[in-house]
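Mods, move this if it's the wrong board.
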Amino acid sequence: MMLHRAALALLLCSAVHIAFAMTDGLLPNGNFEATPKASEMNGTQVLGRYAIPQWEISGFVEYIESGHKQGDMLLVVPEGAYAVRLGNEASIKQKLTVVKGMYYSITFSAARTCAQDERLNVSVTPDSGMLPIQTMYGSVGWDSYAWAFRALFEVVHLVIHNPGVEEDPACGPLIDSVAIKTLYPPRLTRDNLLKNRDFEEGPYVFPNTTWGVLIPPNIEDDHSPLPGWMVESLKAVKYIDSDHFSVPHGKRAVELVAGKESALAQVARTIPGKVYTLTFSVGDAGNGCVGSMVVEAFASRGTVKIPYESKGTGGYKRAVLRFTAAVERTRVVFLSTFYHTKTDGSLCGPVVDDVSLLSVRSPRALRR
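Not the wrong board. Structure tokens:
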């Protein structure tokens, strides 16, 4: 009986551990507020491989306090009092307990310092992705990025690595606020030929933040942090939430922040020769992005340009594109015709949301 109870207690402890590891939000010490011991520091440089609680480091890693100066440059810490800076070929790593076969998204904040062509390699074996961060989209000094993976093992290692080759080995990006979110990729239904039509399934958005999350360029749909959608462009698109922005439908939407260099796409199964109706919402995020906006939509040989006059205070309108499918797989693409910036110089643009693709024979499509 005692043995049975001990086994049951062990099982419950294991279940609690897994539940804790799977909770959406910051990773253990994901904001680096738990500090290294003074004996494992040399100025700002971290000396011990395991000096930062919950993390393993490699290479030249610095522990930066908010307000720290490097020459005339003030280093900006995205959240809280501390962040880490990755020098040339430096990395941080954390072991994650996950569910094999599930999809996950990593969200983290990064700030540029003094490098000219800053990039980050994010990986969970065997997947990896190179994220360019030389373009600053916001005006606060940093941006939040998302990257996704499918777990092939129950225990994986997340690595964020700076492949930089700067003359100054310390001249690398700041990393802060690393979080995880379980993704549940939507399946196709009879109501829509597109997956994740309203963008409700997506990466973790940090609470009490006003800059959204960037979905990096060249993201394919197999491991997209925005399930079902691809970013087929040189620049990122921005994932926004209704807590901090004006969203046409539901709680999430996408802002096209880089003109024609910021394109969102999905491939849908279609029947050649059949007519389809693509409907969607175009609006603004209520974030002070003012001007004459135009969203371009493409599907098969059909195109449409939807003008939207933004006052920067929120709002939207519905748009329609009818087209005849030419092939069995039709690529649906959205992009912004123009670049837009706010008064503070940060990039912004029109919002796309509530996307529907249906055959015109569908009663629902005819009602629209």
